Amino acid sequence: MVTEDSEHNIINYIYYYNGGGVAAGDINSDDLPDLFFVANTGENKLFINKGNLEFEDISEQANIQGNASWNTGVTMIDINNDGLLDIYVCAVSGLLDFTGHNELFINNGDGTFTEDAKSYGLDFKGYSTQSYFFDYDKDGDLDVYIVNHAVHTNLSHGRADLRNDRTANVGDVLLRNDNGKFTDVSDSANIYGGINGYGLSASIADFNNDGWDDIYVCNDFHEDDYYYINNQDGTFKESLDEAFTTISRFSMGSDAADINGNGYQDLITLDMLPKEERVLKETEGDDAMFNMQAHLKKLGYKDQFSRNMLQINQTGDYFIETALLNKVADTDWSWAPLFADFNNDTHQDLFISNGILRRPNSLDFKKYVSSAFKGREESEGLEWLYNSIDKMPSGKVANEIFEGNSEIFKNQTGNWIKNEPQLSNGAIYVDLDLDGDLDLVTNNFNQAASIFKNTTNGKANYLDLKFEYKSTNKEGVGSKALVYSNGKSQLKQLYKSRGFLSSVEAKLHFGLGKTSKIDSVKVIWPNNEYIVIKQPEANAALNVVYQEGGQIYDYSKNKEKNIIFKKEDFINFTHKEDNYNDFAEEKLIPYKVSTLGPAFALGDIDDNGFEDIYIGNSVGKPAILMLNNGLSFEKSDQPEFIEDINFEDNSALFVDVDNDGDLDLYVASGANKSPKYKTDRLYLNNNGKFTKKEGLVPEDQFITSTVIAYDYDADGDQDLFIGNYSQLGNFGLMVDSYILVNNGSGHFEKDQNFKLTSKVTDAKWYDINEDGIKDLIITTEWDHPYIFINEEGKLREMKLPNELNGLWQTVTMYDFDKDGDKDILFGNWGLNTKFNLNFDGPLMMYHSDFDRNGVEESILAYNNDGKYYPLNTKDELSSQMNVISKIFTDHKSMAGKTIEEVITKGSLKQAKSYKVETLASGYLLNENGKFDKFIPFDKDFQLAPITSFLELQLKNENQLVVGGNSFRVNTYHGAYSALKGLLVKGKDRYNFVSEFGIEPFHDQIKKIESLKMKSFNLLIVVSNDGALRCYSY
């Protein structure tokens, strides 16, 4: 039992409630897995498995109780290569009055153990979390990475480069096994060891499939996680920025496994985003982190967000984050994730242990402490603070378990395990009763441990693999196995320390489903030799023995790519957003309206047969015009662009408005505080010089998102559709878009017969009904798409399928199903979003002056079990409407309240309401000219907002490049960066662009375009707040 007093508590030690680990292994060689439980304080426990789920406590005679004051993680490992499992326990010492060191209990073979860490160089003293044994240098023996953790001090909150200065007791260490004695090689191996390293777990795996094992380290609080790629020379390269765009903020437990069957190991990291509405509103989350995020970024830290992250490994080069799409992002205060096939159906399932004794991030508790602490002496204050700990709310919460199917996870909590509050920390999977399925064991905080018996039994087939490797690594730690059955393969790698503070037994478990026939098993040993076993028997434990002289596995074949595109350095342009912050003006909005640039347009200005490029810019930076001679680009001197440096450029179009035979330029303006710079601009072309002309187009003050041209009234000149998106400072206001009718000489008037009030994001002219006249397709947010059929200059709205209100971003036409006609493809917000977490009904936005102060607010609400709750927290609502803080004096009083209880039903009825019924990107299927069916795209298209489609021809086949992502959301949503770019042939034929030579789209894609050069084509990728890229093909 962990007890609390004025010195020993979570105030003085932030990890006081983290609990202890659990380990499984056969310590007495009877083929039954035994169990070891860590006690933070008091005596550790060792239980011998007697069979039939009966256990005998041999802790006292085994002499494994330990002498350290505070124990944490445990690993069972044969440290001296005598064929007997030893036990390595991590400990915290040098903090408070904690004494001792990490302890190594050597198995004497007679049911007793002798502590001998010092003889092996494993008696680490410091703030230790858990150990991870692996052969990082391929010399045949097991080295160890020890994750350690900092505690809050004045020194641990500085710049990110603190990680470069090693701090004794705190920094992680890598110990190399030198003939049985462990030597610290952390510095020479490039392992960080700073005072800001809050290490809580690690995952060891060959993430990049090069045959050498890598390390992912989870750090709590502000410090970034670490991703160490093995350089194959005894050193590592930290590569987090190159491989990950989104990480957990309070990274806790982690695990690695190939969950989608592509042969690369994926990763999950846990955090503490609550699922329950009441807890969500009572505790601090990312909603309060906007200013902190900006501050940490200045200090050199990566953007981090407080939720679980499910990182899908894309060919070892980078990871795609999908936890929101898979609905595994919000499991509350979570510790140990474990990937395993619990129902033996061939797919990886996921177990997560949960719960904390008290929630230190309770907003009401923090407010109480802040106010009551004032005026007290520090010693008096700490004593008072300890006496106030009971005011922290309980953090008991159910463990969760998810069924996997290689595509998506389904929550089976309540079906597979009981849905009851727990305080479970360390956890493992293990087949305790040897019946062919994996049971679960949890080490619970101040409660008896739990064993969850798996009742799958004979309902599905399985195969277990054990290994006998070299004498210096007898269990074959680091071995991989590929099981081939029923036309599919499963990859697993043997590592013992997994999840949180815990270790599993040295066995790989494969579910086979209904199939009892195994084609073959390929085992890749730690030295990269491999063996193939043909048609082994199912429903058995196969012992695979290493034999010298095997063939070396060729990892290079996994890296072969079909390179079509080559990166070029034709245009040096990087878009940089200005520092305008929408959230400071409107504190309740979910995303910005001010970051829609840069504008981009193609057109042959100098009539040389090659399209030139206009690139608009953000406030304070001039637009540029790049002239194309077919071989390269040269910047054109345009004084008017410099004069208009204070405009924000969202969209642009080259179009001959005055019918003089050359291309003029229309630039759609974006957000700006000054009315002077909100209007769109029209520049007339005079021998290649562009001059702005006033009074030719209406001078509206809206944020314009798009401009497109077409002679829709067939009078011989180009008319314009102007798509308006928003009004700065009034997010929820629907604004007018219009058609400008050209009088033939470049003067425009609004078509009074066309009316559209919405939030337009994109528009295209396409001949939908193949009558030779182009029709108008428009995408909008908080509304449905619009299609207007052009009937000799009169636009008739076409009826679309119901329930299509969305957050639509872009549109194109493409023969997606390859049936010979073009479908209409729409880019929506995607499903990998917090909007999708509790999407039991439409997402709602209410727009009104709720507090009657003359300023309209936009309040979002989501549906959870038939009731609508405000998306924003009490603090956010109060910051915009002070009346909220008067009605709800603390967070608990508002937590769990519906939107009608917070805003009042009467106010909501008077407000204008808008809804989002679908977030899925997809297409309207063309069935003989009718578009009556909307079909969502596959999940790979749903990873982030789709903002650009480009059709191009590759190898005599029309293909589609798809891009997107969005960072303009507030910190509650994080950053949508998982859509790395797709190259599409058809609905079932696509791959990521990185497979063809294009760099993955880690940033926000504004537009993708293509133009012809003299001897090749050029693909151009335009990014918001990022560099423009060019690829020849």
Describe the structure.
The protein is mainly β and 1033 residues long. 9% of the residues lie in helices and 38% in strands. The protein folds into 4 domains: 22-355 and 396-463, Methylamine Dehydrogenase, Chain H; 464-484 and 507-556, no CATH class; 566-835 and 917-1032, YVTN repeat-like/Quinoprotein amine dehydrogenase (Methylamine Dehydrogenase, Chain H), CATH 2.130.10; 842-915, no CATH class. The strands form 21 sheets. The chain has a 5-stranded antiparallel sheet with strand order 36-35-40-41-43, with no helix packed on it. Strands 53, 54, 55, 56 and 57 form a 5-stranded antiparallel sheet that branches. Strands 58, 59, 60, 61 and 62 form a 5-stranded antiparallel sheet that branches. Residues 476-542 form the ASPIC/UnbV domain. Keywords: Signal. Pfam families: FG-GAP_3, UnbV_ASPIC. This is Fg-gap repeat protein.
Quick overview of this protein structure:
It is built from 15 helices and 77 strands. It has 1033 residues and is mainly β.
Largest beta-sheet characterization = 5 strands, antiparallel
Q: Indicate the CATH architecture of the largest domain.
A: 7 Propeller
Count of strand segments: 77
Rg, please?
Answer: 31 Å
The CATH homologous superfamily of the largest domain is termed YVTN repeat-like/Quinoprotein amine dehydrogenase
Contiguous low-pLDDT stretches (5 residues minimum) are none
